[in-house]
Amino acid sequence: MKLTLKIWRQESPTDRGRLVSYDMPDAAEDMSFLELLDILNQRLIKKGERPVAFDHDCREGICGSCGFMISGVAHGPQKLTTTCQLFMRQFKDGDTIVAEPFRSRAFPVIKDLVVDRSALDKIVQAGGFISARTGSGPDGNAIPISKKNADLSMDAAACIGCGACVAACPNGSAMLFTAAKISHLGLLPQGQPERKQRALRMVTKMQELGFGACSNHGECEAVCPKGISIDFIARLNRDYMVASALETMEPVKKV
Amino acid sequence: MARAMTFYSTTVGKKVVMAATGVLLVLFLIGHMLGNLQIFIGAERLNAYAHFLKSTGELLWGVRIVMLAAILLHILAAVQITLANWKARPVGYAMKKDIETGYAARTMIVSGPLILLYVIYHLMMFTFLQTPQGLSDTDVYGNVVKAFQQPGISAVYIVAMLVLGFHLYHGIWSMLQTLGINHPKLNRLRRIASAVLAILLAAGYISIPVSVLLGIVH
Amino acid sequence: MELNSKVPSGPIEKKWEKHRFDMKLVNPSNKRKYKVIVVGTGLAGGAAAASLGQLGYEVEAFCYQDSARRAHSIAAQGGINAAKNYQNDGDSVFRLFYDTVKGGDFRSREANVYRLAEVSNAIIDQCVALGVPFAREYSGYLANRSFGGAQVSRTFYARGQTGQQLLLGAYAALSREVALGSVKMFPRHEMLELVVIDGHAKGIVVRDMITGKISSHVGDTVILATGGYGNVFYLSTNAKGCNATAIWRAHRKGAFFANPCYTQIHPTCIPVAGEHQSKLTLMSESLRNDGRVWVPKKAGDQRKPWEIPEDERDYYLERKYPSYGNLAPRDISSRAAKQVCDEGRGVGPGGRGVYLDFSESIGRLGKGVIEARYGNLFEMYERITGEDPWKWPMRIYPAMHYTMGGLWVDYNLMSNLDGLHVLGEANFSDHGANRLGASALMQGLADGYFVIPYTIADYLTKVKPGSRPGVDHPAFKEAEREVEGRTKKLLSIGGTKTVDEFHKELGQVMWEYVGMGRNEAGLKTALQKIPQIRERFWKEVRVPGAGADLNQELEKAGRVADFLELGELLAYDALMRDESCGAHFREEHQTPDGEALRNDEKYAYVAAWEYKGEGKSPELHKEPLEFENVHLAQRSYK
Q: How far is CA C408 from CA C60, C251, C377, C402, C405, in A?
């Protein structure tokens, strides 16, 4: 199949950047989108041009490294799919596809389609953990956890941290990411002692990093490759309200 | 107080304030509509109701002050959130498609100010009697009929209520979500309930000018 | 050089306990005076960095990914073993130890494996405490599933994302230490050199992958937890970025490389679709519980699968291994698939695939049951291949998956280079010649959470606090110059071929001659071809761009250059190990039924290779293996 790729090319964080068109006469249906970029890059290198920079690693949809906007949708047109698992059979012969980096103030562009998502790490560092020192846990079966809660916690924990939610949100909000982490830990008995502080710390950090607000558009859930539900955002809101009413935020302390 | 300010300093806190004031505003809209719909019972009933409201005196002012505060907070939070949202994506996309969000959700920041403009106009006309037609102080029923018999006034009113309906369609659902009122079994219902409530409110209000224009109420 | 495994004396079940008491402790107030460098933030590295930070050491952790959470441990699907015996089905520490030694075909070190089994239970407790949402039963207690190579149900899991959840647990613990300042995290940094001063590992040289800056980091000890070297085969189930540069650089600096030829092939992967293929995707082995593997009896049969009548199909696993059938172990099923494809009976594009057919079980159990068991896998298959597995039987083919070999370490997980510790897949220690399913996660976390925090203290008591050199020490400057020189050289060759072309070429040689079935002639061919590719690489490769910013081609070039050396050692080790054991299958040595035939008299040892310089043969050091608790016997899965 023949395709035209319009790819965002940007030399450096300070470069203005532009969309550049590339003809791809040799695309095939059973190629992944990243494999198509591989082919383009091989060609560019042979021609003495600079290949397109893009993040990727596991190429099986779990590490969360890959991801950019494909014709206006984070990770492209197929639901519940990361960019690396998007195959060209989702497109038609003759299509023009636009590839742009995830855009948000908190995700500055590094080069081409590569952005800096370390803001997501910072949100987790603010409180997305249970402070259990190695070796301090009781027997794994000491605290039974209802299957329902364990399953719901797992639904939230499935987040791969790709940042598509932020990219798709009209407000550049990181609420779905933060809500998933808060819900994953907040649904488990082990997560209760720090639950309020966690909500205060993570929400405050999210704010500091320059993410936008949640306006309940639901775009994040629509593009999430793991189908994380915005129900978890309601849970975050609840946790944050309760925490604000009952506690004042404290810094993280040594065990 | 410090804790309240810290709470408000985050976008989540601001959204909660918007949602909480939203609840008050929706309750007001329901009450106001039920009051207005008494027009269908007859002139006496509506005028008596208006008289009753005025007779409550301080209580009415209390409600007015609470509603005014709610509107101001609602607007303040909306403006601050919108500014923060604009800052959150300094470079826009060359191409961006919406999947889940709808017209109502995307235009909240437009429908909101439109409703505000209408509210000011509305207060000036019916409450403060500042319109040139010279309305009666006691015959609210007559005032309403007289005003809505002018197609221009009716048209503005109907359009404003449609805008309100849109605002509520996203707003009520959003309010429940922001206040964390959700349950797996109720979540589908939340969307339906907000749509139903938005339609009922808009239709309830619109029914009055339409009835006047059609001569059902005269 | 004498290899001293430092295995403690005494009965096997008392060794670790005794050793923990015998080891020295670091005075709590001295801990902050020691700096530990951790490279890699997967299960082993992440758990180690978090645990050492908690103990009070100053830790610097490095990973090439943009976040510590993305290390390839994340991709493990199946589960993690532990000897909890929650199922009351007869499991015990000794049984887990026994199964692992047997599964490894008697080529692992007994004492290490026993310790692994011993700490396995604490791992589950720790992960639960950190909030890992393991699968639960309706009672609220932890659920288990069965896995290959064991008759008890001891595998803990979190849907099909166990590795992800365990890693997120370690990453959360690590994030906490980062917030407290006890661990300094360096994402998007790649280790390019190990610095050894007077025989002690004292630091590393890294490249900041965003700015291209080369810098040195000094520590009192260095931990490498950088994973395996499966990408030497180009196509593998590893992440694209997985590489052996850290361990290979350490090897070149004197660390012995043990058993490089022990590489595991996984039988149920989605076959290669074409030239453009960049990696292979694993599908859970559980599919073989209900799927029947077959190929046409006739070579070159082009008919659609449903047009081939029953009596013209060859259910070769059921035919060859009547009792285990489609559930024969990984290495056996993999080799059998290769054999039928070599005979021209393979299916799908390129003829490298066999059918995994569910029609019989769908008929027997109903579509609903199969959908409940494997629905997500069917979806994944369809997404990748575009074929509907409900209509067409799935096509599968083996793929390179895991490397049991790695840097040689003693019982304390320290290599022969003083101060260099190696954890997880990067070391050789626990899996022998073949790893059992759900054991990799167990080993990574055992090393990181429960072994290194003790053994590193014992090592550090021998290091004077505050004695570590500064970054201006000549050895660091020298190492930085080496790295810069290498980078410049790669950028300046300006040839005509891309890095990927060389990598693919190497991968083809490795897969063809050093893959599932190996023989003397083939290995000798590989040993001839690999140096030729390497020579051409250094003459003809083209690495575009400069060194001073994000340059993904440059990153790849450095890694492939190291694979081109490692591949040769791997083939050499495979040639020198003139026996079959576990995943190392020398065609010359097999039983009449095609099972691996060990030669315990000659080869019951760990082959630890010492680097002797470019163009020189490596020197073999043998660590003899003794089996005092599990008796040497031939594996049988018939």
A: 23, 10, 37, 17, 8
